[in-house]
Amino acid sequence: MKIEVPDIGEIEVKDITYGQARELHRANAKAFWGKAENEVDPDKYYDLLEKVLELSGLGEKELSEFSMVQVDVILQQTLMEYTGLNVKS
Fold this sequence. Notes:
By secondary structure, this protein is mostly helical. The chain has one domain (2-83). It is built from four helices and two strands; from the N terminus they run ββαααα. The chain has a two-stranded antiparallel sheet. Helix 1 (18-32) packs antiparallel against helix 2 (42-56) and helix 2 (42-56) crosses helix 4 (68-83). The two termini are 19 Å apart.
């Protein structure tokens, strides 16, 4: 599936199953659980992004042209698409 990443463009990622999406949603919730507003457990969140990376099928070949910050943005956008958190206008 193709996703649109702001300021980067279109990226092709693998489709995932409903069960995998639920697993990502759960891990995302746990990264923020019990935290004050706008806080996150960075270790849990980066573990989550690594899981998104694994499921997405993206690798060094596809991501080597981007900075680490851009890779995080790509993975965050992919997570939002996978879990339905991306509000479409």
